[in-house]
Amino acid sequence: MVKNIKRYRKDLEKEGSPLAEKDENGRFIHLDFIPLTFMLPADYNLFVEEFRKNPNTTWIMKPCGKARGIGIFLVNKLSQLKKWSRDSKTNNFTPPTSKDTYVISKYIDNPLLIGGKFDLRLYVLVTSFRPLKCYIPLKCYMYRLGFARFCTVKYNASVNELDNMFVHLTNVSIQKQGEDYNAVHGGKWTVQNMRLFLEGTRGKEVTDKLFDEINWQTVHSLKAVSGNISNDRHCFECYGYDYIVDDNLKPWLIEVNASPSLTSTTSSDRIMKYRLMNDLINIVIPPGQMPDVRWNKIPQKEHLGYFDLLFDEELAQQDALNMDKKLGPGGMVRGRKDGSRPSPATWK
């Protein structure tokens, strides 16, 4: 995902797209939504160069071939990687596999805290991508019943706590091993409760902006990989998106799970995931209809359940075409004195 997003940004920059605009420090204004990330051991030298620019930075390492928080650790010294680097070296004839590869990212050390650190798990259904050689428009849906996962131990950025995974990792498989884990609520809030809390403490405007940013990031992350996905009209994908929100209410995309866990730890968790699967199937195969690969329409509203249409590339292109027809001399929209544009048929 990281390599595709980097390539996506470079392509937009070459095209002169306003989405690739940068600030005075050379950082992307609209597409800066993933922490600085490298692949090890392939990018080890690049990582060392970046590390020496900011030697007091903390980094988080994740193995590519594992899940549920297994094998994740934090580092703040190059010496902590030396043994790992030596053990990871292979000869020219046996390149490292996905199980040998690690992702190392700059740690978000200023997370928004609500009692402790948390992240958001959101579910995104993709019913079609747009490969390079086949016109099948990107279409995706966001599920409203995601949840926030909380750490059971109060957040502490001290270097003495770098090895305390109960402070830094929100994975339920990690947290449920702790003494403070509550099996009743499972250390989770629904997204609706999280949104209500933020509206009450930070205001509705900034909360709406936060979730708009999450939607924006989700759509562009899918656009970034759409050309590399082997699309099959008989298939669909349900991804688990993980976001961390910093104390400036900026969301950061930290991981996309191709096979998100559907196991439940609480009764409310089980009900939510049952609804997720039920609503997902109702979109892929609308009730009362036979499966048909040629069917590529948006289901009726009553069949969407808790899903919302996040982006439909076909509708977006139709919006752009209709807007071009409505634009009058001087770029004004016909029938509107202020030149403002009507609401698009799709999000963003």
The SS-based structural class is alpha+beta
Please indicate the percent range of residues in DSSP E strands (runs of 2 or more).
Answer: 15-25%
Count of individual helical segments: 10
Query: Runs with pLDDT <50, length 5+?
Result: 90-99, 131-135, 329-345
Let me know the largest β-sheet.
7 strands, antiparallel
Helix content: 25-40%
Assembly type of the chains comes to single chain
From the alpha carbons, calculate the radius of gyration and give it in angstroms.
22 Å
What is the end-to-end distance?
21 Å
Family: Belongs to the tubulin polyglutamylase family.
InterPro entries: TTL/TTLL_fam (IPR004344)
GO molecular function, one term: ATP binding
Keywords: ATP-binding, Cell projection, Cilium, Cytoplasm, Cytoskeleton, Ligase, Microtubule, Nucleotide-binding
Descriptive notes:
The chain is of the alpha+beta class. It is built from 10 helices and 11 strands. Strands 5, 6, 7, 8, 9, 10 and 11 form a 7-stranded antiparallel sheet that branches. Helix 1 packs across helix 7 (204-226) and helix 6 packs across helix 7.
